[in-house]
Design goal:
With 421 residues, this protein is of the alpha+beta class. Helices cover 32% and strands 21% of the residues. The chain has 11 helices and 19 strands. The strands form 5 sheets. A 6-stranded mixed beta sheet has the order 8-7-11-6-1-19. It is globular. It binds ligand DP6.
């Protein structure tokens, strides 16, 4: 192992994005290996606005594996963490750091313990796929620390064993998780369909919907759907395979109308499967349904889709606008229907890329109050605007895959002690 002294700490810090599925993963054929019943496709979100940062450290002075999430120590004893750690350790190679006088042999990794600190730049509880970014980042950072030589596809198969949707966060842009056929899951991997620059026009606005309801986790929800929903079986065998081909083509050719129709239809079918589950699962609430109605009305008025909507296992809406101009019109509508509560600072109501807010000409509460009613409402102006039903909006775009952060000041663990800073 290291020559001397034995109190060294070696660490790596990485940053990984989250992703939003436009063709959904819902249902496993193998619960332990996390193998899905159908392929899925996602868009990676810009890590500037939504990402996980993870520092992993190794030192002979560590007496056990430990992890801190957003500053609080959590247990690593769960099967999913253990599977990821075992898979990465099993592929570790020797590491030499001459500057620090560190030499780790391949076989040493089995005895050495790691410290992991992870931080989300968005609220973990907001239901914004934190497990996808989290496991992708953990696997990516551990693979760098332990000098794992496997390619990104193989790493995605390891991240998959932490959380299915995490495998898609190993790449930027547009990503497909291929369900695979083999029993050990080695061919159930993510592949990149197109990079984040391929379809530069798209703008994504997330409405974080206020909800007091405790949601069924994706893991247990999809287990119940597999056990009880006949619609899920039909969906995975008959519907998704065709949609995957159509979605790949829509992405390849920048065909926004097809992209939007497929995205909305697939979100709606996923939630129909949830309703078809016994007992039924309700992830969307009245606000989510209202957003769908407003978007449908607008798309129909324009005679071709301007915006796509999709909802995961919760009430938050992810809205994809065809370009920046449409995104500013979308934000105007969202603020018209869902204004902030009085005394809310606009700066904390619209997060992320604030330039969209500027384009929309809405910089203060008085601008929200002055917003005209959207033309698609005709004379049906709502008697009530729904202040307080949305907690906040995040403006973002398609983004890149995981990266290493070389600057030690960004590390979440102390370089001398390996404990959280
Ligand atoms: C609705 O990846 O969170 O977001 O594999 O059990 O960890 P586990 O589930 P998870 O499920 C995500 C489901 C979804 C759709 C999707 O992301 O494709």
């Amino acid at each position: 192992m290291a020559d001397k002294p034995q109190n060294w700490v070696l660490m790596v810090t990485a940053q990984s994005p989250t992703n939003i599925a436009v063709i959904k993963y819902w249902g496993k054929r193998d619960e332990t290996l996390i193998l899905p019943v159908n392929d899925s496709i996602s868009v990676t979100l810009d890590p500037k606005h939504l990402c996980t940062t993870t520092t992993v450290a190794v030192s002979p002075s560590f007496d056990r594996d430990r992890m801190w999430l957003n500053g609080k120590e959590i247990s690593l004893s769960g099967g999913r963490y253990q599977n990821c750690l075992r898979e990465i350790r099993g592929r570790a190679s020797s590491v030499e750091d001459d500057e620090k006088g560190i030499r780790i042999q391949k076989q040493d990794w089995e005895k050495l313990h790691v410290h992991i600190a992870s931080y989300n730049n968005f609220p973990t509880a907001a239901g914004l796929a934190s497990s996808a970014a989290g496991f992708a980042c953990l696997v990516f950072a551990l693979a760098k620390l332990m000098n794992v030589k496997e390619d990104q596809g193989k790493l995605s198969a390891i991240a998959r064993q932490g959380s299915g949707s995490a495998c898609r966060s190993l790449y930027g842009g547009f990503v497909k998780w291929v369900m695979g056929n083999v029993e050990n899951g080695s061919d159930s991997i993510a592949i990149q369909l197109a990079s984040e620059t391929h379809w530069d026009d798209l703008v994504i606005i997330i409405a974080v919907v206020s909800s007091l309801q405790k949601e069924t986790s994706s893991t247990s929800g999809m287990r119940e759907s597999v056990e009880t929903s006949a619609l899920l079986n039909y969906r995975s065998k008959e519907v998704v395979p065709k949609r995957i081909l159509q979605m790949e083509e829509a992405i390849r050719t920048h065909d926004f109308p097809s992209f939007a129709r497929l995205t909305c239809a697939d979100s709606n079918q996923f939630h129909a499967v949830c309703l078809d589950t016994c007992p039924p699962i309700f992830y969307m609430n009245d606000t989510s349904h209202r957003i769908i109605n407003y978007m449908e009305k607008w798309n129909r008025f324009e005679e071709k889709p301007q915006v796509a909507y999709t909802f995961d296992a919760g009430p938050n809406a992810v809205l994809i606008a065809r370009n920046r101009k449409v995104a500013s019109l979308l934000l105007q509508r969202l603020l018209f229907y869902f204004p902030p509560l009085p005394d809310t600072d606009m700066d904390s109501y619209v997060l992320g890329d604030k330039s969209i807010l500027k384009d929309a000409g809405v910089e203060a509460m008085k601008d929200v109050e002055a917003l005209p009613s959207p033309p698609e409402l005709m004379n049906n102006v709502p008697s009530k605007r729904h202040a307080g039903d949305v907690s906040y909006f995040i403006c973002t775009r398609p983004g890149r895959g995981p990266i290493l952060l070389a600057d030690e000041s960004q590390a979440l663990l102390h370089p001398k002690t390996g404990l959280p800073k």
